[in-house]
Amino acid sequence: MKALLLGLMCFAASLATGYGQAVLGSISKQFTPAQRQATGIDKLTPAEQDALRAVVRANIQAEILQREQQIRAEAQQQAMAALQARRPPPAAKAVQPIAKPRRALTGGVVDDATITQVTGHGSLITLDDETVWQVSPVDRADAALWTEQTDILILDDSDDATYSRRMVSKDDNEIIHVRQVR
Question: Taking the C-alpha atoms of 120, 124, 126 and 127 in order, what is their torsion angle to the nearest 10 degrees?
């Protein structure tokens, strides 16, 4: 089946290319004398005829490309349909969400604030009190998902000496390690 589709594609391309070459020959030869006079092609300068040939060539090439893409898409659809006809659909599996372990919220609350901006793919968080906090590299993917208007707590204890505070989202109790930079 693939060989047949590939053969059809090659045949269509060769026909289109042959058609393109015929049109790209001398444009004035494509018309009768009456048609040449009616269209005014005989009045075109050689440069204008070359420009017209270029436009026709570009249009034909665009049509060929579009048709080749259409043939490929149809062949792919037919191949997928053939594969699906051979295989039974997979049985639906119940997907259980993976529970993320939560750390205990210990230590004193230093601040209760709201995020106004998350920048640098989660590397910096600005709060409503205009303080700026740098996020630990291991927590930046999580922080990048936090949004403006997220209410947070800042705790004064952390197991990380460099990022000595923990920022906790009140929405889902997700915790990231941070340090104040401004």
Answer: 140
What is the amino acid identity at position 96?
Q
SS3 call for 136 = coil
pTM: 0.42
Query: Which stretches of the chain are assigned E, i.e. beta strand?
Result: 109-119, 124-127, 132-135, 151-155, 165-169, 175-180
pLDDT digits (tens, 9 = 90+) for 141-171: 999 999 888 999 888 876 778 888 889 998 8
The rounded distance, in Å, linking the Cα atoms of 35 and 42 is: 10
- Single out the residue of 100, 97, 77, 68 nearest to residue 174, CA to CA: 100
Q: How do residues 17-60 score in pLDDT, each as one tens digit?
A: 454 444 445 566 777 888 878 888 878 888 888 888 888 888 88
How does 116-148 read in b/e, with b if 16+ C-beta sit within 10 Å?
Answer: eebeeebbbbbbeeeeebbbbeebbebbeebee
The DSSP output letter for 130 is S
Cα atoms in the Cβ-side hemisphere of radius 13 Å centred on 74:
12
Q: Which residue has the tokens 């060769």?
A: 14
